[in-house]
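Quick one:
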Amino acid sequence: MNEKIGMVSLGCAKNQVDAEMMLFTLRQNGYQIVNDPAMADVVIVNTCGFIESAKQESINEIIELGKLKNEGKIKGIIVTGCLAERYQHMIKEELYEVDSVLGIGANESIGEVVAKCLEGVSQEVYPDKLCCPLEGNRIQSTPRHYAYLKLGDGCDNRCTYCAIPMIRGKFRSRTMEAIVEEAKTLVHNGVRELILIAQDVTRYGMDLYHEYRLPSLLNELCKIENLHWIRLLYCYPDAVTDELIDCMATQEKILPYIDLPLQHCNNRILKKMNRRGNKQLMTEVIHKLRDRIPDITIRTTFICGFPGETEEEFEELSAFVQEIQFERMGCFAYSREEDTPAYDFPEQIDEEIKEKRAEILMEQQMAIMEKYCQSLIGKTVEVVCEGFDRYAQCYFGRSRADSPDVDGKVFFSADEDNLPNIGEFVRVKIDDYIDCDPVGTVI
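Output:
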């Protein structure tokens, strides 16, 4: 079999893991995987459908691939992922370029759908979303030295602005044994950093074991030889327990880094968002983390312009950001998503106001980041080398404080006699920064 298959995976790392599992299935079915979609016979677009900008990115990608199809360069386009699950039959109705559409519950059927597509047969397959496989072999699409480790899928939080429970279904944990086994395989294959992901990492185990099991899982992962870093993403503040904080503080392999998507700090807005906890809880958790893990990097995200957010409530959020001084922060203008409760909330805010508030918050964060970078000058940080920038004529990588794709980089030079390899951990003395990216020299 010589047919070539290309994959374009959009959106979050959780979606990327699904794509890696589908790629393995296709290779097992005898297909050749190619990196360049223009060189493929069939291209799979693994879409994101979370917010409007992500949906538009997915649609634009499909349209661009449609041009290649019209030119006869590719034979078929298959749409999978969250956009396919959320809009189902509408995909083919609106996008004539598409041949087949699969809901997330049909990911394991990708081989059969590709075969039919090559025969000119279009399909639409939408089994129960809970059929989306949690286990399976993968073709790793990240660099060899790091990989995402998915603890589960789905979400029970039901935030009023979010379509994920509708798209992905209820929260489902993988067994601890299965996760540890996959982690061992990844490390055996060269992975040195595992990045733990799920829609809500801190809820891990509640459905299977009826208690928070993230600390127990972390303790097991830390036993794996040759694993160097473990990074935590998507942790909800109300489930950051003292046990978890103690585990992070005492286990050397767990990075002093945590992603806490807070979304807001005003108690009225948090209640309207259906977020658990309040401003006091958030503040207490942050202080506990910083007291117990002094060098911790706390990353968060906020939503500006949620329906009914007053100017005073936005000012409270701005003051909170200034007070806490997050080491990493992202901010988004509220995206009004159909079929979510907040879509029908009164007092929807003008797009221009939402964008302006988000811009103000990010400008504020840039000043905080600049201060943070200044504090690094003269310090030595551990960095994993990820490549050589030919334009800047120096190496680049990530420190403990930098998660792939969402955070920054560290740029550094090295002596000719001691040039680092990709995936190698080096110690870099910071002596400057450019655009909030530290710059230094290997020591």
